[in-house]
Records
---
Amino acid sequence: MLTDGNRLLVVDDQPDILDFVGQVAEAIGFKVRLANNAQEFREALHEFKPTLLILDLQMPQTDGVELIRELGNLGTRAAVLISSGMDQRVLVSAEQLGVAHGLKMAGILQKPIMLADLEAVLTQYLQVPRAPTADELRRAIDRAQLVVHYQPKCRLRNGEWQVVGVEALIRWQHPEAGLIYPDAFIPLAESTGVIAALTDFVLQEGIRQLGTWRGQGVDLDLSVNLSPHLVRELDFPDRLAELMRAHALDNSRLTLEITETAALEDPARTRDILTRLRVKNFGLSLDDFGTGYSSLTQLYRMPFNELKVDKSLGLELHQSREARTIVRSLVDLAHNLGLKVCTEGVETAAALQFLEVAGSDFVQGYYLGRPVPAEAIPGAVHGQPKLAAVG
Ligand code: C2E
Ligand code: MG
Ligand code: MG
């Protein structure tokens, strides 16, 4: 979710007032910058780009009225609240001055500032998070705001869980809202068609990154999430093979993760594309198995070679006998159909031990490694492996 930013800049020469206002504003949801004098205020105005200002009218050296004039000349768009212990008429007149200078005046805070008044006015100016728009998302790709993080995928080898691959997970590094997670924008990308450009980006970036790691002596497999909406383009398998060839990588290094909704729209075409991907030796994983979208029939109708157990099950393993029973059955089911199993959401040693006994071929989860920027992956590969519980 996005906001244009709830950034509050407070200028007051009394440190206790700054602390008080700062604490209340932060608790409500503002990012806060405090300025003790006009000079600090000007600097913060420039770099912090506040959305709301609280101005003390009486300060040594520069007073609030001068600052109002300055803000007017700068064409500031932030809302301005004035605070002072002076009588109401002075405050009202300062407020009118602000309006005359074209400022968005937000009202008056009479000192001593009452907690309830402060909370009321701050809440009124707190912008509610809004969903990103398709245009912003489109621009995000052009402006290189999309980044790919990688989460280790581990396999049991010689009694140790070793990192043998990574899953590419997209994030949006928004200049104001910070890091936005895919659940907040993938549905928008899918409904507006931006998903095609987004997926191209993740594939190109991920495949390029595999090549870079290999050059550093780190040989890994890559999993990329493929939106069901994209399993429609008949030339997709060829384009992908071309991309792998350009980086001198074997197709078997790449697995595409798809949720079952994929197959529902046009089963014949989906099967055509998925089969050609498998013929070309790409991996195909049925993602989020065990959620509402799951359907057992996809497992044998479509040429998947991996089943990915949804993290909602993985997260429950350490405390739910039912979750353990289901996962054990899914592992057996997948193995009987000739598929490998990867369990997601492994957050505890207990879950990992259970999965080892149950025979999950791969595991993924915070206990083994969170999604991290590409640079952190070689360290994760060479880091302390999780020892197996049983020989
Ligand atoms: P997913 O493919 O099932 O990815 C796994 C999600 O589980 C990731 O969330 C990952 O960070 C999270 N996770 C992994 N281990 C743990 C754990 O131990 N505990 C907990 N609590 N969470 C864990 P993320 O990165 O937020 O991705 C969410 C979903 O967004 C993905 O689910 C995938 O469906 C979608 N997505 C991400 N990147 C892309 C992309 O490039 N293209 C498409 N189409 N979808 C993507
Ligand atoms: Mg996935
Ligand atoms: Mg999943």
Note: The mean pLDDT is 90.
---
Amino acid sequence: MSNVMEKDIDHVLLSEEELQTRVRELGRQISQDYAGKEPMLVSVLRGSYIFMADLTRAIDCMCLVDFMAVSSYGSGTTSSGQVNIIKDLSDSIEGKDIIVVEDILDSGNTLYYLMQVLQARNPASIRLCTLLDKPSRRAKPIQSDYVGFTVPDAFVVGYGLDYDEKYRNLPYIGVLKPEVYEK
Ligand code: IMP
Ligand code: MG
């Protein structure tokens, strides 16, 4: 371990190679499921930006991309039920096949709200793809249609996921040392 972020990482949960392999599998699966269609992938910023970039390049059907940003208020490592749209989509999703791309489904508070907002805009279909799923923490009745990895209840960072907006640029996913967020 050499760089300045790594002293804060307890251990690597998912290596760069494991992530790449699984993301390619998800891309293949989505390509099969949407063959002949033109899905629009909606990336929820900021946590999904790296996953989105890799996932879309692993999809070989015609597809569209769009981005939105939401904030969910809560303390350092948990979200609340209150969600705000900070940046909305650029295009209409009416009549389109939507795949919402998120970094992690944790309590589900953020995505439960967001899926309702998007559903109300009358897409032809809407599915959810999350790189990570932490089912043990679910507070809302929501599940992901495409899951990269199911992870234990630990706070993880890297590959787009942050703590306090940092560590997103780690190429792997690691468990943050609790003392980093307990200070
Ligand atoms: P929710 O609890 O499902 O609403 O999760 C909302 C957001 O919290 C996710 O989109 C992530 O940005 C963030 N989050 C939840 N768990 C983790 C984690 O373990 N590491 C980093 N971010 C997380
Ligand atoms: Mg975050």
Note: The longest strand covers residues 64-72.
